[in-house]
């Protein structure tokens, strides 16, 4: 005899909503990576590029979650809650970017005046010294 406490999977798992949620998650991840690459190609340092991707990712992600996944009308209060939840995830990836030795150095190949910039790595393992 089955227990009355047994919950059916269908009572708490909405497969179509989960599929929409997964689609939005993948879309937002791809968008975030594309923006990050774009901002680095424009010349921003990796940490600056990572921070520059936050506002467009938040706005587009919330619009997709509210409209496509949950099918609710967007509100400013819900957007604020979404931003707080999403920004709680930001320190970890940004700290990973900052912990990389080249994240804080000029490593794009040209200085602001157009001269080539290279990193000396023989005596300085962190690459802090730059020679022209």
TrEMBL record:
Membrane spanning stretches: 21-41, 47-70
Region spans: Disordered: 108-132
> What membrane topology is given?
Multi-pass membrane protein
Matching Pfam families, A to Z? GtrA_DPMS_TM
Task: Give the location in the cell.
Answer: Membrane
What is the predominant subcellular site recorded for this chain? Answer: membrane
Q: Which UniProt keywords apply?
A: Membrane, Transmembrane, Transmembrane helix
Domain annotation GtrA/DPMS transmembrane: ranges? 20-88
Whether Transferase counts among this entry's keywords is: no
Q: What is this protein called?
A: GtrA/DPMS transmembrane domain-containing protein
């Amino acid at each position: 005899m089955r227990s009355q406490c047994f919950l059916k999977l269908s009572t708490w798992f909405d497969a179509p909503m989960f599929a929409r949620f997964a689609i939005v998650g993948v879309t937002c991840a791809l968008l975030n990576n594309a923006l990050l690459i774009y901002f680095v190609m424009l010349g921003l340092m990796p940490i600056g590029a990572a921070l520059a991707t936050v506002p467009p990712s938040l706005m587009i992600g919330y619009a997709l979650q509210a409209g496509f996944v949950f099918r609710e009308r967007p509100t400013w209060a819900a957007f604020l809650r979404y931003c707080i939840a999403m920004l709680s995830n930001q320190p970890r990836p940004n700290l990973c970017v900052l912990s990389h030795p080249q994240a804080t150095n000029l490593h794009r190949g040209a200085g602001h005046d157009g001269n080539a910039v290279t990193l000396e790595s023989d005596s300085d393992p962190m690459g802090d010294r730059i020679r022209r």
